[in-house]
Amino acid sequence: MGDLLGVAVLGAGHMGADHIRRLDRVVSGARVAAVADPEPERAEAAVAGVDGVTVHTDPAAALDAPGVGAVLIASPGPAHEEALLAAFRRGLPVLCEKPMVPDPAGALRVVEAEAGLGRRLAQIGFMRRYDAEYRRLKSLLDAGTLGRPLMLHCTHRNVSSPGHFTSAMLINSSVSHEIDAARWLLGQELTAVTVLRPAPSAGAPEGLADPQFVLFETERGALVDVEVFVNCGFGYQVRCEAVCEAGSARIGDERSMVVTTGAARARR
Fold first, then answer.
1. 192 pairs with which residues across the strands?
2. What pLDDT sits at residue 263?
3. Of residues 210, 199, 207, 140, the one with CA closest to residue 174
4. Alpha helices by DSSP H, the chain
């Protein structure tokens, strides 16, 4: 174990437990060294069968646990700022689930604290940039063979949402993925946003505005629309179609990119 990177996981809920499983069984070169959760029973259940891990209710205690060399933050969004700043004070690199923090003022405090260190320690969990299909789409758009991107059509659906999900979380915990992906794919900043809320689905919990439709405008005149539907009941679906001046490219259907031009329709 001495050769493995010891990771402190903060939060042992749905995402935290899955990160613990992956660190223990999937990821090479790392191990779970400590876990913190306000409910110790939940933390104990998440680390069942994991060797050499300590369980804490105080995140600071997990960060200071023996063997910890990095941090994975999977706690609720309002707890992220304090955890990030605590990791920075200890010089620990961090993978933080999105949202980084729930509000712009907190985000600025985190960015300024990291900048003051003179090195980057935090990475936010926007995994679209590392997905093979998204990377193919990014390469195609960068090559310019389809011309200037005019629109992105995005779909983000989940079977169901956790009980604590709020209407605002459809944006800051779900559409945040598309916010990051759109900026990355297009190489443009977003300049305006419109959020439309149709009548809630019968499958949405009481009081939850689900689905929602989001429209982004970019600095160079592209449009990005996002359908977010977190209680659709029929599957996890993430799709993106780029419509350009000379063709379109769609990902998310069959593990391949479908490119359509005036001359052909092909899978890549």
1. 217
2. 82
3. 210
4. 14-25, 40-46, 59-63, 80-89, 104-117, 132-143, 169, 176-186
